[in-house]
Amino acid sequence: MAEETKYPSVFACPHCGDFFENTSSGVRCANGHSFDRAREGYLNLLLAGRISTTAIPGDTPESLAARRRFLSTGSYAPIAQALADIIGDVDGAVLDIGCGEGYYLSHIRSPRRFGLDIAKRGVQMASKLLPDAEFVVGTAYRLPVLNESCDAVFSVFAPHSLKEFQRVLAPCGQWVTVTPAAHHLHQMRPKRSDNIIERERRRDEPPEHATSAQRVQFDLDLSEEAAHDLFSMTPLVWQTAADAAPVTHVSVDVWVASGFKS
Q1: Nearest to 45 by CA among 10, 13, 7
Q2: CB proximity list for 208: less than 8 A, separation 6 or greater
Q3: From CA 145, how far away is CA 34, in angstroms rounded?
Q4: I want to staple 233 with a disulfide (CB 3.0 to 4.6 A). Which of 6, 66, 125, 164 is the partner?
Q5: What is the maximal distance between C-alpha atoms in the chain?
Q6: DSSP string for residues in 156-203
Q7: Are 172 and 261 in contact (CB under 8 A)?
Q8: For all residues of the chain together, what is the average pLDDT?
Q9: Of 50, 49, 18, whose CA–CA distance to 35 is shortest?
Q10: How far apart (Å, rounded) are the C-alpha atoms in residues 42 and 219?
Q11: CA 253, 112, 109, 149 torsion: positive or negative?
Q12: What's the CATH fold of domain 43-260?
């Protein structure tokens, strides 16, 4: 219990990796690096120079709004349920890497929920949705997270680093990823080039390094509005020149894979 009091958060200073102490306006590490807490309660731990100054990091506000609308319909509830069932009930810290607007973290059964995303707007939305959780803006490839501080980490349709999973997981901690399988949203995809056919073939097998994997498959009949929201929240929206387009009937096909700290 004393350790819980000393380390109230899993988040760490992105400069030096040290743990934070709370201040009146935010947090501060023992080396003097300080960060103010935003009005919504989150911290921005994405250091200058890690991304282009002209880029909008992560999902755009428009994509996140579409994601919120689409996920609120419950169309992806089977994915959220499979994820929550694999993680189970966790007393310790659970970290959502690439949390977006917070939908998947909202299904996790843990008193200590944490989320990270590179998109500031997503973190703002997640903070409002889950005021009892803690969120930061940060990068998945250099997680501002303490070593061995998480009992479980997961990532849904987001970039992630298995090496970083291993670093931040506690002994016997579990990681879970949700990634597209071979037929995921194939009705919306561009015309099938040789490269796409080869990528689909690789996705027909479960992800490497997983100790177990569950394939979740179902079809959706969508309204035109929901179809456009689904299309807009995926990378397909950038492939319109290659004949990617929203359609109202789609196949959902994903791998929910898991493993443990090695």
Answers
A1: 13
A2: none
A3: 15
A4: 66
A5: 58
A6: ESS---HHHHHHHEEEEEEEEEEEE-TTTTTTTSPP--HHHHHHHHHH
A7: yes
A8: 90
A9: 18
A10: 36
A11: positive
A12: Rossmann fold (3.40.50)
* Rounded alpha-carbon distances, angstroms, from residue 203 to 105, 195, 212: 25, 12, 15
Which amino acid makes up residue 5?
T
174 vs 57, more confident: 174
Q: Is pLDDT at 144 greater than 90 in this prediction?
A: yes
**Helical pair 224-232 and 61-71, crossing angle rounded to 10 deg:** 130
Q: CB count, 10 Å around CB of 26?
A: 14
Q: Give tens-digit pLDDT for 195-224.
A: 655 666 677 899 989 999 999 999 999 999
| Residues paired with 135 in a beta bridge | 115
pTM: 0.91
Give the position of tokens 């506690």: 170
Q: Percent of the chain scored above 90 by pLDDT?
A: 81
Pairing, β 134-137 against β 150-156 = unpaired
Q: Do the strands 34-36 and 43-44 form a parallel or antiparallel pair, or are they unpaired? A: unpaired
DSSP code at position 206 = P
What residue segments make up the domains of the chain, in order of their start? 43-260
Measure the CA–CA gap between 162 and 208, rounded to whole angstroms.
10
Residues 85-134 have pLDDT tens digits of 999 999 999 999 999 999 999 999 999 999 999 999 999 999 999 999 99
Tokens for 94, please give them. Answer: 């659970």
